[in-house]
């Protein structure tokens, strides 16, 4: 039996007045959080059972006390600077149980979920309340018994911090008494651009090569910084079918996803001696190329088009998500860096046709390795803070918007649990994070969960009415790359 919808008070919260009295004592909103005031994160979660609303409410309420940002609103102090100020939270304002057209749900429940999530990109959030919502769609689809869409304002945190928070709210499905198992701590320590110093016994040549790597780092950084300023001032991507057509109008975003085999991704990674991220960038090259040449009907297989993506990079110290979860669980959540700790790099994407599918991965690895030998990501993070401090929010926002609109795609990749988890007692079937707000027609996000790599697309609905065909291209591209890697492995064994 369907539960009655929860009431949603759109008149505002009584906590605002109390917050005003305490505005001088709240934590300042970070510069990076102020730059993403129009950006929102949407995480679609499928669960294996119908929603037990009392259990879900109790679980959400229990977690709120641990995360002050989810109990705070932004209030300007006497000097006009926004601060995080605690306020009263009414769960009925944040848990939405919408009434959908029963006929539409019965006819195509998957489409009903997709359409509802798309409408969220057109609806503002009430800034008099903490900026997060749970939208419960309690009916079965082809993927899950029920679906929840979590909408969070980007100022509350970036994808990595919000994923860590979400994981801290879950438990292992195999053993609900413990936290979920996460991927092991990365073998690499220190910054990604840092080359480990060779021991003295390695000889003078090895030490000279190590010292030379810093000269290369400085040169690459100078080139990337010049490209960054050129992008802001005049350098823009060519107009392709991936480029946003109308930057002035706000377009409704359709958020779609498709599961890929994580085992296939890892097989290619091991065969090509690269990283998972290299494989995903290469598969994205291949998928966009298939889509482009099919849609345009261009038969020139020698043509190669260069566009650029904004690749988000986590700037937190290299550690495991498990370590962060353990700190939260032990009551040391303040030791975890919340908020937006991101830089970005401008990553070239190549659109072209290759006879050998592995060429996409080889090209991706070469470009990503080159970007690792640069301080571009640190510079972009610091530049955002300096520009905001010197020129103010309006000018900094215009510069940020201009840089994004001069590129074509946003891209990110996040690591999730390696085992199935439960959220408030509900076994999670899939996790599909995405978002809207950036002035781009296409955003690509990858999210791993157990043995699935979910590719999530946020597309301008009018510009990509056939976005599911683009998802098909991701599936087919990985299949071709996996097949080519398998053939390469067999040939190497025969040799």
UniProtKB/TrEMBL annotation:
Main location: membrane
Subcellular location: Cell membrane; Endoplasmic reticulum membrane
Membrane topology summary: Single-pass membrane protein
A GO cellular component entry from the record: plasma membrane
Keywords: Acyltransferase, Endoplasmic reticulum, Transferase
Family to which this protein belongs: In the N-terminal section; belongs to the long-chain O-acyltransferase family.
Protein name (database record): Diacylglycerol O-acyltransferase
Organism this protein belongs to: Panicum virgatum (Blackwell switchgrass)
């Amino acid at each position: 039996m369907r539960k009655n919808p929860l009431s949603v008070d759109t008149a505002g919260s009584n906590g605002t007045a109390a917050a005003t009295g305490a505005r001088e004592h709240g934590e300042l909103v970070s510069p990076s959080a102020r730059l993403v005031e129009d950006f929102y994160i949407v995480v679609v979660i499928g669960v294996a059972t119908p929603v037990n609303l009392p259990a879900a409410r109790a679980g959400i309420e229990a977690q709120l006390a641990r995360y002050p940002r989810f109990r705070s609103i932004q209030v300007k102090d006497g000097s006009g600077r926004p601060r995080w100020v605690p306020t009263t939270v009414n769960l009925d304002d944040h848990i939405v149980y919408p009434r959908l057209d029963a006929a539409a749900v019965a006819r195509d429940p998957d489409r009903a979920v997709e359409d509802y999530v798309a409408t969220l990109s057109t609806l503002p959030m009430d800034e008099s309340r903490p900026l997060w919502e749970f939208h419960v769609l309690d009916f079965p689809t082809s993927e899950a018994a029920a679906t929840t869409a979590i909408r969070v304002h980007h100022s509350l945190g970036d994808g990595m911090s919000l994923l860590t928070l979400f994981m801290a709210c879950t438990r292992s499905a195999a053993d609900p008494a413990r936290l979920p198992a996460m991927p092991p701590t990365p073998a690499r320590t220190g910054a990604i651009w840092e080359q480990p110093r060779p021991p003295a016994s390695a000889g003078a040549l090895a030490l000279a090569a190590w010292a030379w790597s810093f000269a290369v780092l400085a040169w690459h950084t100078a080139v990337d910084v010049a490209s960054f300023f050129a992008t802001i001032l005049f350098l823009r991507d060519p107009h392709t079918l991936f480029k946003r057509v109308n930057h002035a109008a706000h377009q409704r975003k359709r958020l779609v996803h498709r599961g890929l085999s994580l085992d296939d991704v890892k097989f290619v990674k091991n065969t090509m001696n690269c990283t998972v991220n290299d494989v995903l960038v290469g598969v994205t090259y291949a998928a966009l190329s298939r889509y482009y040449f099919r849609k345009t009907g261009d038969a020139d297989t020698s043509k190669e088009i260069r566009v650029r993506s904004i690749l988000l990079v986590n700037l937190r110290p290299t550690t495991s998500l498990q370590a962060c979860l353990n700190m939260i669980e032990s009551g040391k959540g303040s030791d975890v860096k919340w908020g937006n700790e991101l830089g970005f790099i401008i990553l070239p994407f190549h659109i072209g046709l290759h006879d050998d599918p592995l060429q996409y991965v080889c090209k991706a690895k070469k470009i990503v390795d080159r970007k690792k030998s640069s301080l571009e990501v640190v510079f972009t993070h610091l530049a955002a803070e300096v520009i905001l401090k010197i020129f103010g929010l309006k000018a900094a926002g215009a510069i940020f918007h201009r840089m994004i609109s001069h590129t074509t795609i946003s891209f990110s990749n996040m690591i999730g649990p390696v085992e199935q988890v439960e959220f408030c007692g509900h076994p999670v079937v899939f996790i599909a994070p995405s978002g809207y707000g950036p002035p781009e027609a296409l955003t690509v996000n990858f999210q791993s969960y157990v043995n699935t790599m979910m590719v999530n697309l946020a597309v301008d609905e009018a510009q990509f009415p056939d976005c599911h065909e683009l998802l098909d291209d991701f599936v087919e591209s990985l299949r071709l790359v996996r097949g080519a890697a398998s053939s390469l492995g067999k040939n190497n064994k025969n040799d």
